[in-house]
């Protein structure tokens, strides 16, 4: 006999679609593929299943809370429980975008809540709860909008760079020809300035265009790449760098373009080096991030690299534009380092973000480990 699942919802959520896919034979494996937090409760309001995203959001472990009421791990959330029970009793789905949940850690979170009751064989009832972290949603939307603007800025800059490069070559060639005709050494100093500045602009244009190449991905050891970059910067520095390593030894290898990642870490760590005082410090930390969304793609595992320094941080007036090309807080800077780093990471399916916390400047890089799971 074929099992039937019914729902009164006319618009099925991602959780419900996966739930219906295999008639609840293996709910854990089904909802594990969803990037948002998902819980399934039975008709007694006992937790049947919760995915990894749900465990991360609510700071719980399914081994400890399975079979329990929501109040066991969401204290002071009686209204939330009452709404779930009413939805199940009436078989009526609902959505609420301003639900405040109190965690056992005494913290509270505000979430969007999508509740869908389902019934199997007209006998067994379940309620599927999909939670969307309001702060994360806002951040993702802001990052996506920023990414669109940055992509447009880079495309415009690329077009301008091509337009500059052609006449720049003619200008340099004319200065060289003029220099050959001049007898006065003092006048030749001016042609040397023209040639030197033309070369500087050409190098700047080349840097604008250098990050457009396709990545050549191979299996690499992330820590070896970071150490290689640190060794180079140690040679460049006048004195020994104070870099504190905090590596996760369990971090597996990843598939990326090694040369492009070297350039990414070179730009970001050099940026930190230029920001700190003579007695300042830099921290490099690696961790595994589970159930991670990178540029709208969901990954079960990702490498998280934090590059931190105790410098003054990015000036407030350019914080939101820090990854835009030609935006810099240093008079001698070109404003291309972080922009190029972001472009190279995007080519390797990664991302980079900035924050200022605990008197530290923190750049967080995410790189997927394995293929996406959407």
Principal-axis shape = elongated
Order of H and E elements: EHHEEHHHHEEEHHEHEEHEEHEE
CATH class of the largest domain: Alpha Beta
Major sheet attributes: 6 strands, antiparallel
Reported CATH architecture of the largest domain? 2-Layer Sandwich
Ranges with pLDDT <50 over ≥5 residues? 1-5, 14-18, 20-25
Mean pLDDT: 79
Q: Based on helices, strands and strand pairing, what is the structural class? A: alpha+beta
Strand content: 25-35%
E-strand count: 13
CATH fold-type name of the largest domain: Heat Shock Protein 90
Distance between the termini: 31 Å
Radius of gyration, in Å, reads: 27 Å
Helix content: 40-55%
Number of helices: 11
Kindly give the count of domains: 2
CATH superfamily of the largest domain: Histidine kinase-like ATPase, C-terminal domain
Verbal overview:
By secondary structure, the chain is an alpha+beta fold. The chain folds into two domains: 9-133, PAS domain (Beta-Lactamase), CATH 3.30.450.20; 214-374, Heat Shock Protein 90 (2-Layer Sandwich), CATH 3.30.565.10. Helices cover 42% and strands 26% of the residues. Strands 1, 2, 3, 4, 5 and 6 form a six-stranded antiparallel β-sheet that branches. Strands 8-10-11-13-12 form a five-stranded mixed β-sheet, with helices on both faces. The chain is elongated, with a radius of gyration of 27 Å.
Helix-strand blueprint:
Elements: E1 5-7, H1 14-21, H2 27-31, E2 37-42, E3 47-50, H3 52-58, H4 62-65, H5 70-73, H6 78-90, E4 94-102, E5 108-120, E6 124-133, H7 134-181, H8 185-209, E7 218-220, H9 222-236, E8 243-246, E9 254-256, H10 258-275, E10 282-294, E11 297-309, H11 337-347, E12 351-357, E13 360-368
Parallel strand pairs: 8-10
Antiparallel strand pairs: 1-5, 2-3, 2-6, 4-5, 5-6, 7-9, 10-11, 11-13, 12-13
